[in-house]
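Please review this pair:
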Amino acid sequence: SEAFDEDPLRVLRGCQFAARFGFAMAPTTIERCRRLQPELSTLAVERLWEEWRKLLLLSERPSVGLDMLQLTQALDLFPELTALIGVPQDPEWHPEGDVWTHTKLVLDAAALLATEEQLPDEERLILLLSAVCHDLGKPAVTVLEEGRWRSWGHEEAGVQPAARLLARMGTPQSVVDAVLPLVRLHLQPRLLHRSRA
């Protein structure tokens, strides 16, 4: 109804409901969400954080929420995420496609791991936000080099975009302080494993 338009936060709430409960948005709701997109920037970060928190803590497949954010154009509120769309990756290592698709797959894998390990809320948030942020540096450094897409230094390049995104989300500082080192060092486990082989 028209009451939906009274609070633009309902756009984000609809996105997290879709992820939490397996809902699909009706076309009329999607259109209402798109019309509210300019008002999203007026929302307090504390209110944004509550919707992100529920999306990450309560969804089996939080990527559905990211898809809904994109569909409703609410993703535009988070330019660090929209920057991932269409950024190519080497198909040998990333046959799934662009960095946006990869990020959503990593996010869902992290959610499954957090559930299996029964992580407490703060640890789950740290893990899932690290998944969301881990490749935010790729848009700035990805180049075609001798016929292959390379993203040298994307770990370090991702720290500042991650800090900006987490601030836009309203993420508590204790969580930010835990996520940023994981973004910077997210390739280290693979390098350590390789050095032991």
Remarks:
- The mean pLDDT is 93.
